[in-house]
Amino acid sequence: MRRTAQETREHILTVTHDLFYWHSIKGTGVDTVAAAAGVAPTTLYRLFGSKDDLVAAYVERAGGLYRQWFLDATAEGSPADRILSLFDALIEQVQPAYCRGCPFLMAMAELPDASVKAHTLAVETKVWVRERIGGLAPSDVLADQIFLVMEGVYASVQSLGADGPARQARGLVESLLRAAG
């Protein structure tokens, strides 16, 4: 079966997501991506130009998928209900079969230079999330607190799993919402 350039690009990005997310960006070479995607390295370079461009496309695609997940999770109810729905969806998202951590935090850690496009795109995703939480929370202070709880979930599942402190996130957010009442 022959793919269009756009279909090939999307296929490569799907494969890239699995490799970069589960095995690290720096630990996964272009030849590994090309082999896993079943394409020649020249095809990969023709579509992306460089590994840096491939990494940026991976982070950009992950950002789009994450934004859609966030919007779906917060689609219905009062602002407080939407925030709590976010945490219900989050605890499902961070189960070990699906999650090894936040792909954006991982990208920023692997690519600490703020001038790298993939780093910038990861930061933009985090800013977007904080802005959306800010649109639901009654104050910036509460939005910051909720954002910190969310980030804490991603950080704690790395070492203690989804059944560790992460399981307390929704209850903590409920307490924050009540206190802000």
Question: What do these coordinates show?
Answer:
The chain has about 180 residues and is an all-alpha fold. The protein has 2 domains: about 1-50, Arc Repressor Mutant, subunit A (Orthogonal Bundle), CATH 1.10.10.60; about 50-180, Tetracycline Repressor, domain 2, CATH 1.10.357. The chain is built from 9 helices and no strands. The protein has helices at about 5-25, 30-35, 40-50, 50-75, 80-95, 105-110, 115-135, 140-160, 170-180. α1 (about 5-25) packs across α2 (about 30-35), α6 (about 105-110) runs antiparallel to α7 (about 115-135) and α7 crosses α8 (about 140-160). The longest helix is centred in the middle third of the chain and has 23 residues, at about 50-75. The protein is elongated and about 60 Å long. The model has no long low-confidence stretch (mean pLDDT about 95).
SS element count, helices: 9
Overall number of structural domains:
2
Strand content: under 5%
Q: For the report, how would you describe the main beta sheet?
A: none
Radius of gyration: 18 Å
CA-to-CA gap between the ends?
Answer: 58 Å
Helix content: over 70%
- What is the architecture of the largest domain at the second tier of CATH? Orthogonal Bundle
Principal-axes shape call: elongated
CATH class of the largest domain: Mainly Alpha
